[in-house]
Amino acid sequence: MSGFFVYLDMKTFRAAFLLAFSLLCGVLHAENVKISGKVVDGEDKPVEFATVRVAGTAIGTSTDLQGLYSFTIAPKDTIDVIFSCIGFKEVKRQLLNPEGDVTLNVRMYSDDQILEELEVVGFRDNINGMQQFTTDNLKTSPDVSGGSVEAMLQTMAGVNSSNEMSSQYSVRGGSFDENSVYINGVEVYRPQLVRSGQQEGLSIINPDLVGNIKFSTGGFPARYSDKMSSALDITYREPEAFEAGISASLMGASLYLGQNSGKFSQMHGLRLKKNNSLLSSLETRGEYDPLYFDYQTNINLKANDRLSFNLLGNISLNHYNFKPADRETSFGTSSDTKSFKVYFDGEEKDKFETYFGTFSATYKINRANTVGASISAFLTNELVSYDISGEYWLDQAGTGGEEGIGGELGVGKYMEHSRNRLRASVVQFALKGTSAVRSNNFSYGLSFQHESFRDRTKEWEWRDSAGYSLPTLPEGVHLIYNLSSRQDISTNRLAFYLEDAVYLSNSHAYMTLNGGLRFSYWSFNKEFLVSPRVNFSISPINFNRWTYRIAAGVYYQSPFYKEYREAREDEYGNGYIVLNNKIKSPRSIQFVLGADYTFRMMNRPFKLTGEAYYKNLARLISYEYDNLKINYSGVNDSKGYIMGLDLKLFGQFVEGTDSWITFSLMKTNQTLNGKNVPLPSDQRYSVGLYFTDYFPKLPRLKFALRGIFSDGLTMTAPRVSRDKSYFRAPAYKRVDIGLSYQLVGYSKDGVRPFNFWRHFKNITVAFDVFNLFDISNVSSYYWVTDVNDIQYAVPNYLTRRQFNLHLTIEI
Fold first, then answer.
1. N or C: which end of the chain has fewer CB within 10 A?
2. What pLDDT score does 545 carry?
């Protein structure tokens, strides 16, 4: 019996033990705490392979390529989670009585003590002639365009812009048309008939979608097209997960949405601009009714580890309607002041509708070889239509005359008419690839491009001075200017490039060498071009704070439609357009010598950059600026040179914020009809400043300043060649400031609030003051001619001081 009871007790005990164990395991399993989240750095980029562990235990994990992590642990009253990664400061978080699923997102900051050397190396962003820029300052930049890439570039050394309403810029003495712009590896184009910043509207680059910026003011490699001055290469970003943002201001609004599921990602951006308040500060008063709309999408699909697809699309609708009323302008000097008064009648209606799309596929053959193919299309439909008449008075104001009183200098009427239409399309097929062979990194590409243009131009101007029509001729009334064009043309271009980037090192120095050839053919003039380009940089190991580089190349400006339109006159003085198929591509032989010096000052990183350059120019197509409109001669009629020096100091003048100051000197010369004159883009000096700061006791309150001070452009009277006469406009001086306060977002230690506001990545309100010192800058001139054929240049001033409020919300 005792054995039976022993057996029974053991059986009962085993059953009870198994039952208790099962219940205990079930309870423990049910009460396990799951901790997950994301680890990012100070720029919201994922931190890969960071170690996440529980203090005092062996429990932990590592973040993946997206910075995500997840692990489970038995419940405790207190759980200390430690985040660590090489190059970052260790982060500790304490969870009190955690239950169920806990989300713990962490931001890690670089450890300056550990990464002092890496921080210096990171300043050397000029690779193969291309400088890389972060997008951190775009949204805080105080500019009237709302944080555009071009507005940031205009503060860089060698880059000039004298019109705050435009995204166009000049680089090292080149014209606006000498700059190539790429988005996701495809060249994009601007509208062709834009005459002023009021018409231009929105830049084609959406700052909400920008992920990476590369820019070169000279010495850029062979992959970039036949433009003589600069290359801007924009890559749109992929979202990390779902994200959205909206921004609204007194001048417009923008919205973006993004989503990423791993293999499929999409970004969509909408922008709307209606800057009536800004235009109302111009001297010409009237009814301004502009409306600028832009939609862009960037879609990526990763079919597998080797094959991926990209779709980029853009629709831009810019409409500008204006009914002028009157204008009064005072100009001259304090001792010789003149007053110009105009009463207007009529209106202007312009539209610029552009559509752009590209579809590309990339296939990774192996680790060393990648190939890709793309098809892209650009379509523009443009109309500039106006009928405006005016009556004007030009008087000597105040006591400037010889008799000590003012006097009438001119009185007259004028009428301007335009019906200019342009439809253009550019379709391109391209093949690209990269191959790594030992220390060589080859890039190559082949493209075929078809261009079509339908041009219908009809514009004329009539003027009357003191009751006499100008020009005054005995046989009747004549127009002072008229031009017509009726052109339909299609051309083809073929291009091929091959370049090699070599990265070398030995016991003395680190070196990079990029050399390439670009071949192109244009069916319109049967021209075949060969463009060799080379860029070399070296950083001595014993003097690793220094980097030296030298670049040289033969660059061409392959003419686009406006550049080969030649204006002629018939026997009756009527102007008409012919397309010059004898035109040749202007050529620029360039040499660039530069150096970077990185150092620490006030225990903060800085970099001083200097570049000297020389351009030998031949076969130039002369041109003149009229505000933003470029009037080309349509023939190769001049040659010249450009030389200059660019300096830039970049660093953290205030700890944790990037600022820079630039200074440029330049001299240009153009030999036109046997006379040496400066180029229209000649600006002998330029100073650019971008400064950011924050208040120590209120780190969420930030300050930004953007300033430009540059020499005035050289200008001529209408339809007068500069070899006859020219003058220099006043210097361009402008300072914009902005104050922003982050209402919701990451705290200083990188933690979001654990309440309703945790769903918001950022909520910021900002206040901007444009043209802080209320300076009247000149964009162009209106010319008044009296019966004695004396011309007066009446300045057209740009915008005055304006205030702006905007709110940004991101989730």
1. N
2. 87
**For residue 117, what pLDDT is reported?**
42
Residue position matching structure tokens 């985040």: 83
Phi-psi region of 404 (alpha: psi -120 to 50; beta: other; left: phi over 0): left
CA dist., res. 180 & res. 233, Å (int) = 8
Matching residue, tokens 């799951």:
34
- Which pLDDT score, from 0 to 100, does residue 4 have? 37
Strand partners of residue 195? none
Rg of the chain over all Cα atoms, to the nearest angstrom:
32
For the record, the structure tokens of 338 come out as 């003149």
- The C-alpha atoms of residue 653 and residue 581 are separated, in whole angstroms, by 54
Q: What is each CA distance from 401 to 240, 396, 407, 465, 790, in whole angstroms?
A: 69, 7, 7, 21, 17
232, exposed or middle or buried, with CB in 10 Å at 0-12, 13-18, 19+? Answer: buried
**Sign of the Cα pseudo-torsion (735, 736, 740, 746, in order):** negative
* Residue 765: both structure tokens together: 């309100």
Query: Distance (Å, rounded) from C-alpha 346 to C-alpha 324?
Result: 7
Side by side, the strands of the sheet bearing 78-84 are 60-62, 51-54, 78-84, 91-96
List residues bridging with 127 in a β-sheet: 130
**CA–CA gap between residue 183 and residue 207 (Å, rounded):** 12
Q: How far is CA 371 from the centre of its chain?
A: 28
Coil, helix or strand at residue 64: coil
How buried is 299 (Cβ within 10 angstroms: 0-12 exposed, 13-18 middle, 19+ buried)?
middle
Tell me what pLDDT residue 595 has. 93
| Cα–Cα distance measured from residue 12 to residue 401, given in angstroms and rounded to the nearest whole number | 123
pLDDT value at position 123? Answer: 40
Distance CA 639, CA 487 (A): 29
What residues contact 160, with CB distance under 8 A and at least 6 apart? 154, 169, 170, 171, 664, 681, 683, 686, 710
| Rounded distance between C-alpha atoms, residue 730 and residue 733, angstroms | 9
| Triad 328, 333, 336: Cα angle to 5° | 85
Q: Where are the beta strands (DSSP E) in 696-777?
A: 698-710, 714-715, 727-728, 732-744, 762-770
- 215 within 8 A of 205, measured Cβ to Cβ: no
Parallel, antiparallel or unpaired: strands 33-40 and 106-107: parallel
pLDDT of residue 786: 61
Question: What gap in Å lies between CA 551 and CA 221, rounded to an integer?
Answer: 10
pLDDT at position 17: 43
3 state SS of 139? coil
Which secondary structure element, helix H or strand E, spans residue 31, and what is its range? helix 2-31
- Phi–psi pair at 366, nearest 5 degrees: -155, -170
Per-block mean pLDDT, blocks of 10 residues, the chain (811 long): 40 46 41 82 83 81 83 82 87 83 85 47 55 76 79 89 87 92 91 81 88 90 91 90 89 91 91 81 81 94 92 93 86 77 90 94 92 96 92 70 56 89 96 90 95 94 72 68 93 96 85 93 95 93 89 94 91 88 95 92 88 96 88 93 95 83 95 94 93 83 91 88 90 92 69 66 90 89 72 84 90 85
Single out the residue of 376, 377, 371 nearest to residue 432, CA to CA: 371
- How far apart CA 239 and CA 295 sit, in angstroms, is 17
pLDDT value at position 124? 44
- Burial code of 233-260, b = ≥16 C-beta within 10 A, e = fewer? bbbbebbbeebebbbebebbbbbbbbbb
Residue 684: Cβ-neighbour burial (10 angstroms; 0-12, 13-18, 19+): middle
Instruction: Encode 9-44: b = buried (16+ Cβ within 10 Å), e = exposed.
Output: eeeeeeeeeeeeeeeeeeeeeeeebebbbbbbbeee
Neighbour tally for 693: CB within 10 Å: 15
If we measure between CA atoms, which residue out of 181, 184, 186, 182 comes closest to residue 171? 181
